[in-house]
Structure formats: structure tokens, C-alpha cells
Amino acid sequence: MVIGPRVWVGANSTIVPGVRIGEGAIVAAGSVVTKDVAPNTIVGGVPAKPIREIDA
């Protein structure tokens, strides 16, 4: 698992081994992240899916 800088991870989230979370991403509370997360993206759900991109 690699978590980039400026990443927010909500409470009770699960990130499986081998997943990369890009710089500036946000993981919503209670999410299960099973795939890589692109930089500056908000993800959420079970399994986590992109919700929207953040303007950098």
C-alpha cells in the first residue's frame, strides 16, 4: 500500500494491500478501496468508486 502526500482517509475505511492512493486524494468514511486511486480524486463506497475530481 502506498499513500501519497496530502491524502485524507475517512474513519473506518479499508485499503487493501497493493493499492496506491494518489496525491491529494480523498477516501470517504467507511469505504473499501480495492483499486488504485488517481491523484486529486474523491472516492467512496463499497467497493470505492470515483465520485468526482478535485480541481488542483
From TrEMBL:
Per its UniProt record, what InterPro entries does this chain match?
Answer: Hexapep (IPR001451), Hexapep_transf_CS (IPR018357), Trans_hexapeptide_repeat (IPR050179), Trimer_LpxA-like_sf (IPR011004)
Going by the UniProt record, its keywords in alphabetical order are: Repeat, Transferase
Which Gene3D superfamilies does the UniProt record give?
Hexapeptide repeat proteins
Question: Which Pfam families does the entry mention?
Answer: Hexapep
Q: Which domain of life is it from?
A: Bacteria
Molecular-function annotations in GO: transferase activity
Q: Under which name does UniProt file this protein? A: Putative acetyltransferase
